[in-house]
Specification:
- This protein is mostly beta strands.
- Helix content is about 0%, strand content about 55%.
- The protein contains no helices and nine strands.
- Strands 2, 3, 5, 6 and 7 form a five-stranded antiparallel β-sheet that branches. Strands 1, 4, 8 and 9 form a four-stranded mixed β-sheet that branches.
- It is elongated.
- About 15% of the residues are buried.
């Protein structure tokens, strides 16, 4: 007799946009690393300036930072439940 088992992994999403100004040359677009950390787990992604990102994470408490050119953002803390998403945008550079 064959049995089928469904595996359910609860997920949540951290999404946002990245803007970097004043740290680029005419043809240079820096990589931006987005890092989400929780106890015992780190997930990250790397994107270009002026782009969006999505991190698929487990529900729980997360600390999110962004890094570009050795500059690290202030940490942002979020609490997510299964199926929930939160938007965290990062801005690096001078504001006009």
């Amino acid at each position: 007799m064959s049995q089928s088992h469904e595996i359910f992994t609860p997920t949540a999403f951290i999404v946002g946009q990245i803007i970097v100004t004043g740290m680029t040359g005419r043809s240079f677009a820096p990589d931006v690393r987005i890092i989400a950390q929780t106890t015992g787990h780190i997930t990250d992604t790397t994107v270009k300036n002026e782009s969006s990102y999505v991190l698929l994470v487990a529900p729980g408490e997360w600390t999110v930072t962004a890094e570009v050119g050795g500059v690290i953002s202030e940490p942002k803390k979020v609490s997510l439940e299964s199926g929930q998403s939160v938007e965290i945008n990062f801005f690096f550079g001078r504001r006009h």
